[in-house]
């Protein structure tokens, strides 16, 4: 299609588009935006009310989709189209429509399309925006190859409760880490050819009892400080759209919440893309008890700021009548359609040729894609403990027993929401170990010990015999993928089935045992943490799980992942997070009347930011550049890090702060900056971390950001247990209104 063929494109607008390339960058962008707005308004002026509402209808492949709806202009976007043949068919029908407005083709591309990368929570353990950007770009390239142009990702929901199954789709418990990685994923998706939909807006990750879809209660100041920063980072990174959450927030469902969708998102942050509901989310306003029927649900959602109805068909069924009855102004419909059309023009969909229907996703995973997945996966593994340096596997080992049902679980290692992932593409952990061992002349025995969910242990005797006959045992256990993801909330986080029993029996053999945990959340390990000396968390590693895990187990790659969330000792500790507020009665040993449990330690099993290496890193000479800080300046901290071991490795240098005396109680520690560095054995580097003063404050309930005069305590190290390096003084108090916030939460993060 030529530009001059686009409906509603005048010669003036065409001239504006063509002039863009001859102007300085800032002026060119402004002129391009003006040209797009002209095109949007002229096209909108040609549309009937029914055609406008059609642009707000998002329907899935399969029922209830009628293919003729596309040619009749009754669909603005579709989802679950994942083949070039179906995309081409839909695009041909668009050409038959009156206005020929292109479709958005949406799909959940969360951690890969055909080639599967680690799940986002695992990706977060890399503590690397570069890795997140790279993985998202690779996934987007594969999806866009077959015509997908929109992904329902990244999930920017912060969560402090591992009972919630969808924690696996996010970046953990910390707003600074979450904001940095959300922005990186938006940028990576865009570079690879996909528009992003940041989800789920907002508060979805804090449901009561960890129960998916349950209500959330979060004070507004806490929303601004903790749960909204990743979403704001998505706006700043250029996300095309947002998805409203299922949950009710403080009694007001997000799908009909004007404070979230209009006041915060549009007015305060200036977002001018569009918002879609989640699957049938508008119709579920009836279940929430705030709408009597579909018409009222549609009316409340559109007036609150939801532009597109996913699979509810309530907009297309009711909004024309609501407009004609005067209950919904047509100007509201126009503004929603304007947002959708603006996005389509920005993405260049009007000017893009239709997809080549001969393309197939079996082009992937290519050799290059496999290498990328392998490199990303091994950045994400977290060495939780390694007593007596059990790992890496010693060179003297001549035989290995690989025990556990997840060692050879091609489907499960991809994790939930695997898009077009095929288990046949997966290289399992067992296969990876066998390949590596074969090259080294090491014998490998495999014994699953139990079924996938470890309910039946009839095969345990054979596994124990394999362990006794081997020099080394690799036990691969954890969560089958069915126990993680959406609708997979758990009341008990202990290793499911009889896994603990199996692991204790393996420990009794006296052979060195390394436990590899696969799963989408921390598992309650109980006695396993004491009985098994070495534990490696690999999350759901994706297509190249086997080679990546083998690289780390055999020491070809040094583990460098850090926990993006707090690992509890017991389910009853949840919700559990490092950046909690101080208690009036801080924990004291042997004092019952302080912050404590009477039946469990108050501390986590492994803290936020934790992760060991096969080498060791020493921190020294930490210095705060300027003790007195004023508005517009930055807290700058330098520290020397030395690799004191014999192996090359990577370390994540983390900077935390605390405001010990403020007008509101402030967290005991807050991550404000981090940088992942590579150090050769014996090498020393000086790292400088910088945090704008404008990021050292907190929000009030109305969204005002306050930075108060007073002392800021500073900590630097390799986890949230970082040691104190001194104090700085903010010299004066200042406030930033909601629409004038200047600091970005990701400013202190190395890219």
What proportion strand?
A: 15-25%
Q: Runs with pLDDT <50, length 5+?
A: 1-22, 743-747
Rounded mean pLDDT is 95
Distance between the termini: 38 Å
Measured as a percent range, the helix fraction is 25-40%
Radius of gyration: 27 Å
The order of strands across the largest sheet is 9-6-5-4-3-2-1-10
Quick rundown:
This protein has 751 residues and is of the alpha/beta class. Helix 8 (175-192) links the parallel strand 4 and strand 5.
What does this structure look like?
The protein is of the alpha/beta class. It contains 21 helices and 27 strands. Helix 19 (499-508) links the parallel strand 14 (472-478) and strand 15. It is globular. Mean pLDDT is 95; it is low at 1-22 and 743-747.
